[in-house]
Amino acid sequence: MPEDQLPQAFLEFVEAVKGDSALQEHLTAAADLDAVVAIAKEAGYAISKSEILKAQEMGSKAMTELSDEQLAGVAGGSWAGNE
Prior knowledge:
Layout: H1 8-18, H2 21-28, H3 33-42, H4 49-64, H5 68-76
């Protein structure tokens, strides 16, 4: 599996969470990553703490990396509003 991809089981768990408010509540109340892994296991998904950390890291990178177009807009001070 490429380094920038998450395992299918993890992705399936994320999709399950999106559609299950009770599961979301359990995860919100989770005290730590071990609790998150246990909640996933109860729901039938085998995920690991390292996968959670990798997903968080990938999300952080996605939030901080700008596309060339976004960067040009920021650097050039483009304005999209009405004058």
